[in-house]
Amino acid sequence: MNGQIYVGLGSNMGDKEKNLAQAIYQIEQIEKIIVTRKSSLYITSPWGKTDQDEFLNQVIEIETELTPLELLDVLQKIEIKLGRLRNGKWGPRVIDLDILLFGEETIALHELVVPHPHLYARLFVLVPLQEIAPQLVFPDGKGIGEVLARAAQLEDASQSIRKTENK
Questions:
Q1: Catalytic residue among 37, 73, 86, 98
Q2: Which residues are CB-contacts of 114 (< 8 A; sequence separation ≥ 6)?
Q3: Which residue range forms the structural domain that includes residue 22?
């Protein structure tokens, strides 16, 4: 099994907490995937397109025998099953599942880029990622603490992230 694979989850439509829970449940039903850690839930301001409802975000760590493209296919099928419609970049969504990191691999394909191309700028994935993997080192050798500190310095003052009481 390949370990230290991180998936970002987000929802800003409907019952957001239920959407995240359903996505994790669906991921756990895949024979070749084991969810090993789950972050707390975080309420975050929208990123990119800001005229929409707040998001609920979470990061999970998984182990899998799937290749990166097989994992991407599984995650996209789960998004569709849970009602995801692709209606505009950074727009509202019932569920969003992103492969953030796939071990130490660097992948640059048309359909998949890992580490996720916006990972270093998004507090809504870096904060929960640090929660579950405080010693994480990215493929470029940077530690999660360094990346998070830099992103926090660059973060737009209008963006916010706060932990919920639930997990």
A1: 98
A2: 68, 99, 100, 101, 102, 105, 106, 107
A3: 2-163
Query: Is residue 96 annotated as a catalytic residue, yes or no?
Result: yes
Task: Tell me what pLDDT residue 157 has.
Answer: 45
- CATH number assigned to the domain comprising residue 39: 3.30.70.560
pLDDT band at 86 (very low <50, low <70, confident <90, very high): low
For the entire predicted model, the pTM comes to: 0.90
Active-site annotation holds for 98 = yes
93 catalytic residue (yes or no): yes
Q: How many domains does the chain have?
A: 1
Q: What string of DSSP letters covers 34-101?
A: EEEEEPPPEEE--SSS-SSPPEEEEEEEEEESS-HHHHHHHHHHHHHHTT----STT---S-EEEEEE
Q: Residue length, the chain?
A: 167
Tens of pLDDT, residue by residue over 101-145, are 999 999 999 999 999 888 888 888 999 999 999 999 999 999 999
Measured between alpha carbons, how far is 138 from 119 in angstroms, rounded to an integer? 10
Mean pLDDT of 72-77: 96
pLDDT, the chain, mean: 88
Residues 6+ apart with CB under 8 A from 118: 47
84 is catalytic: yes
